[in-house]
Write a structure and sequence with these properties.
With 190 residues, this protein is an alpha+beta fold. Helix content is 51%, strand content 15%. It contains eight helices and eight strands, in the order H-H-H-E-E-H-E-H-E-E-H-H-E-H-E-E. The chain has helices at 2-30, 35-41, 48-62, 87-101, 112-115, 125-131, 137-144, 159-169; strands at 65-66, 78-82, 106-110, 117-118, 121-122, 153-156, 178-180, 185-189. Strands 1-6-3-7-8-2 form a six-stranded mixed sheet. A hairpin with a 4-residue loop joins strand 7 (178-180) and strand 8. The longest helix has 29 residues, at 2-30. It is globular, with a radius of gyration of 18 Å.
């Protein structure tokens, strides 16, 4: 009987959370808010961890975040490597390819879960911020608010990720790439 009571309480809690905050959190994710911005924007008090779980689940369910690129095993991507020092040409090319593929078909590889592990220990937030010092605080907040898995993941090129993705691409040691699903191209900078 105790198990049924606990299940009912959890289901009720999930229902109340979704009614009070779930829709708002999903909307804020779509707007590109960081975790801290979401916590502050909610009118119903919701624990930070719950906001993070809800946002992360929505990012996965909506395809904003992918664990594996569609068709990545069946087909290979054509690798195009451009010079990072010619930023204007690089960014114009990315913009042209993004238009050609449609924003919903462009992803940026994100190695943050892998890189946050240092000799099998998680890096502290301070260490991660130092590592991501090429990003401004708002961009760092966005990246650090996502509970990255211990693998390379792929983030759809949303307006928030467009500004971050350009900076990631210019950091060759991160090995970030843009993936264009329609044209099956992968763009890196060297």
């Amino acid at each position: 009987m105790e198990g049924r009571q606990k299940y009912f309480e959890e289901a009720l809690s999930d229902f109340v959370h979704d009614a009070a905050s779930g829709g708002a959190i999903r909307h804020l994710v779509d707007l590109g808010y960081s975790l801290e911005q979401m916590v502050q924007a909610l009118s119903y008090p919701t624990p930070r961890e719950r906001v993070q779980r809800t946002a992360y689940r929505y990012m996965l369910e909506s395809g904003m975040l992918l664990r594996v690129l569609p068709g990545a095993k069946e087909d290979s991507f054509v690798l195009i490597s451009l010079q990072a020092r010619d930023r204007e040409r690089l960014f114009l090319y990315l913009q042209e390819k993004s238009r050609e593929n449609g924003q919903e078909n462009v992803y940026v590889s994100c190695p943050f879960g892998v890189m946050s592990r240092q000799q099998n220990e998680r890096m502290t937030e301070t260490q991660m911020r130092a590592y991501l010092s090429f990003l401004n605080k708002r961009e760092q907040d966005y990246i650090l608010g996502i509970p990255w898995e211990d693998r390379v993941m792929y983030h759809r090129l949303t307006s928030r990720m467009r500004e971050i993705g350009r900076k990631l691409l210019l950091q060759p040691e991160l090995e970030c790439s843009y993936y264009f699903l329609k044209t099956r191209e992968m763009i890196t900078a060297k």
